[in-house]
What does this fold into?
Amino acid sequence: MTRILIVEDNDDLARGLANNLEIEGFETEIASDGSIGLERARASSPDLIILDLMLPGMDGYRLLSTLRDAGDTVPVLILTARTTEQDKVRGFREGCDDYVTKPFGLLELIGRVQALLRRSSRAAGRDQAASFKFGDVEIIPGTHDVLRDGQHVQLRPKEFELLMALVRRRGNVVGRLDLLREVWGYGSDVVSRTVDTHVGELRRKLEVDPAQPKYILTVRKTGYRLNAG
It folds into this structure.
C-alpha cells in the first residue's frame, strides 16, 4: 500500500488529512515536528511526504534540504500558509515537487497527491537507456547519476528531471510552459521563475562558465534548448 508521511504540527489538520487520504486507499503516518519528520522519512521510506514549513524542532525547508542533500528523491508536497513568491521559489529550489497554500481544497490536494505519485511511478520506469554525453558531462538515466569530468554531480530531483526533459528534445527548443507541464505537472499558474531558477542551478553545476553557457542555452522569449553537439 502507498504510504504518505504527513509532517504537520496542527493536530486537527494532520488527522483530518490522514483520515481523508486513508479513505482514498493510502496508508498514512503523522509527525508533529520537523526533527521527528526527518527521522520517520529516513526510517519508513514513504512514497510521498506532505510537509508544512513552519514546524517546531526543524523547519520544513531544512528538513527538505537535508533529505535532498542525502540523495533522497521521495516526492514532497509542501502544504503551508506561507504564500509569497519568495517562499515558493525557495521551496522549489530546495527540491519540493509541489507547493500548496492554506487554506486549500481537499479534492484538489488529493488530486495533486495522486498526480505526484503517478509521475514518480512513470519516472521510475522510463529513461533507462545507456548514458548520454555532452561536453564533459555524462548522464546515466537508469541510476540518475550525473558526472562532470568523471566526478559525481549532486542534482536535486527536479533538476535531474528538467535536464532529462531537455535531453529528450535532442537539441530542439522547449518552452517554459512545456517544461512546467512536463516536469512539475502544472500550467501557467505556477510560479513563473521556477524553470529559470532550476536552469540557473543546472548551469552552475554543469557549465564551465555559468554566465556564458555553452550547453544549456536560452532561446529568447521562448525557452531553452540543450546544445549537445
